[in-house]
Amino acid sequence: MRSNRRTFVRGLAAAFSAIALAGRSRLAGLWPQISSSAPNALDGEILRAVGGAVLPEELSEADRERAIGAFEVWLRGFRPNAEQRHPYGGWIIPYGPGDPEPRWAGQLSALQTDASRSGGSFADLSIGDRRALLEAAIEDAGERFPAPADADHIAVALMAHYFASPEANDRAHGVVIDKMSCRSIFTAGDSPPPLPD
Amino acid sequence: MPRRIDSDICIIGSGITAILTAQRLTELVDSHIVMIEAGGRTTPFRERNQQRRRMLDYDENPWRDDHIEDQTGEGLMYRSMVVGGCAMHWDGATPRFSPEDFRQQSMYGVGTDWPISYDDLEPYYADFERRVGVAGEPGPPEYDPRSGPYPMPPLPLSYNLELLKKWGENAGYPFWTQPWAKATTEEHGRAVCRRCDTCHVCPTGAKYTPDVTLDALIEAGRVTLYDETLVRRLELADGSDRIARAIAVDRNDPSEPLEFRATTFILAAGHAWSPHLLLLSANSRYPAGLANTTGMVGKYMTGHPYMAGVIDLPLKLYPGMFETNSLLSRMHARPGPLDRYVRHDLRIWDVATSRGARLRDDAGRIQFGDDVMKDWRSPARQGTARVRGYYDVVPDKESRLTLDATRSNRWGDPLPKVEFLDAPESQALRQHTHDTMSGIFEHMARVGDGRVLSTNVSYTMEHPGGGCRMGDDPNTSVTDSFGRTHDHDNLFVIGAPTLVSGGCANGTPTFSALSLRSAEEIAAGFSTRG
To answer: Which of A85, A171, A175 sits opposite B59 (nearest CB)?
Structure first.
């Protein structure tokens, strides 16, 4: 079963990459295009089990895999301690956080360890049991989602990454806004069209 | 021996005022113009889309190498030190000051009148708008006096802003589209704005950045740029009050000092570095610094604070439609007679910040999956507007820039220290100002059946200026109305440092209009183009 799930995950990841490379997906155009093939240090199976617990259930399996794949691509493109934007008028040069990947990888391992105490793997737990473990792990998190790289826990980072996306914004409002894409100014005054079925 | 570079006109600084002044001078005179910039080139246009992507994904600075690590001081001073200056990453808002800004003392008995009026500057505002290609719609003439239309039609209002405009006007305040230096037609040679909503770095070239103008001047052979070159002091001619040379260092080859000689020097280094260089240039005849016989250099530093509010409204708004456009009212900047002085502008944006997805619900419970979406879609969390007003304050004489003896750059030059201070009359009016503005926010909320969620005051001085203020009296000013220093007839200070007061509107149009007016005066000293 484990190898079957891994095969399935690899298949979805490959499908995501193919879509991204072809540039046919709106998300592919909006999320980072990193060509690096270096794998994350994250355990993909546990990450997907986390995604299944924290991302909206209303997402189709393909949509969820796309969101998780985008997060992995985003993480591959992350540069530790990078100089951050200093707005017009800003006189302080801020720098971003260090590489969160080792910490996040450790958190995935810890989830697996916690789950193994009940005799199984984290991925085999029910959504309710996975959420209970995650809730305990992120009990100190604030009301708002931080920037993904600032998230202490990978579950919060994954949610923060998805819920900040144009796709999530459109889904929340039930219309096509396509925020942060470059669009004609001459349609700005129109009521945004409903999401296609 | 230093390497000597001769020119007719030497401009120190390469921001928008420097570049527009150079452009205007090349139209008027055949003179050889040299421009010196301490910073270097930043992200070229062809890479801005890629850099925008990284900014969106990781909040990384899209403007590479846009500051010099050890060339900053204490207090408010922009870090950008780069060819093109701060206007490489400005948002492009281009409102003018109001006639009242130039007549504070005459009309309201506060502050100091400028030596010029709005009418004196109006043609230069129009010239600025033409050069940078401003898109806008005139407001009602009583609040927005202008001699003609904007060069381009305004940015279209988003669906959200159309609703918010009706709301604002129901409150009794006329709103119109903020003018922007962003193209809405192709007539000005730029791409039409694509509402990418990242004006900090415009990936399409629709927003004006001054590097485009400078590159054209360099390509035409009209301006020679020395970038990554830091001017360390100005020196007088022997036995004269005229400036003879600017002593500089090539940051990439500091072994050979540079000596820029010119007939006329233009200091266009912004509110911090212009007075700083004058103070650094002290000598035996001007021991307090050049142009500083009466001790006014670095005094009367100015700007404007703002008060903002977030108002919840029962309107169905869609976050992300066009968040970098906004509505503007100048009604309260032209209030007519007042018992107590308070003047401010008023703006409306639609904002998503208070109604995005969140991890915890109102009860503080952690949410996962569909619960986050359900909470996000809650009708109680729809429709939020941000309102904000820049308000006018009178600078105190001791609102100042000084040389900081405790900090120096790698060359051993002391760095600047800026300390803003309101005049006592503005300090006394502060609570009244805040009460007045929050009263307006509350009124707007009531009219819209909404509620004020929060208000805040930022006392960071936005759009800072001053430090070399203009005036007719050398005892209370550094330059005349053209920026010519009272002490040195071939030294001009242009733009932000010459402001008498900070007004209640973004500064760039006023900095630039003043500079274009200075350019004509400077050109009068040279032979006109044949």
So the answer is: A85
Residue from B360, B352, B76, B322 nearest B199 by CA: B322
- For the domain that residue B269 is a member of, what is the CATH number? 3.50.50.60
Q: Which residues of B touch A144 (CB under 8 A)?
A: 356, 358-359
Contact (CB<8Å) A85/B86 = no
Tell me the CA distances in angstroms from B467 to B232, B271, B277, B470, B477, one per residue in order: 18, 6, 11, 9, 9
Domain count, chain B: 1
Q: What is the pLDDT of residues B176-234, one digit of tens each?
A: 999 999 999 998 889 999 999 999 999 999 999 999 999 999 999 999 999 999 999 99
Contact list in A for residue B357 (CB cut-off 8 A) is 145, 159, 163-164, 168, 172
What number is the ipTM of this complex?
A: 0.91
**Burial B25-47, CB ≥16 within 10 A → b, else e:** bbebbebbbbbbbbbbbbbeeee
Does A56 sit within 8 Å of B372, measured CB to CB? yes
The answer to whether residue B185 is domain-embedded is yes
Query: Which residues of chain B register pLDDT less than 70?
Result: 352-354, 380-381, 530
Whether residue A39 lies within 8 A of chain B, CB to CB, comes out as no
- Mean pLDDT (chain A, rounded): 84
The reply to whether residue B62 touches residue A85, judged by beta carbons under 8 angstroms, is yes
Q: Is the confidence at residue A189, as pLDDT, over 90?
A: yes
pLDDT of amino acid B426? 97
The secondary structure of residue B74, as a DSSP letter, is: B
Q: Which of A58, A147, A87, A16 is nearest to B462 (CA)?
A: A87
B376 neighbourhood in chain A, CB within 8 Å: 163, 172
| Phi and psi at residue A169, to the nearest 5° | -60, -45
The residue ranges of every structural domain in chain A are 2-81+95-187
Assess B294–A contact: CB distance below 8 Å, yes or no.
no
Range of the domain at B200: 3-523
Instruction: Report yes or no on B22 lying in a domain.
Output: yes
Beta-carbon contacts of B278 under 8 Å, excluding residues fewer than 6 positions away, are B234, B267, B289, B290, B291, B292, B297, B298, B468, B478, B493
A36 in contact with B at a CB cutoff of 8 Å?
Answer: no
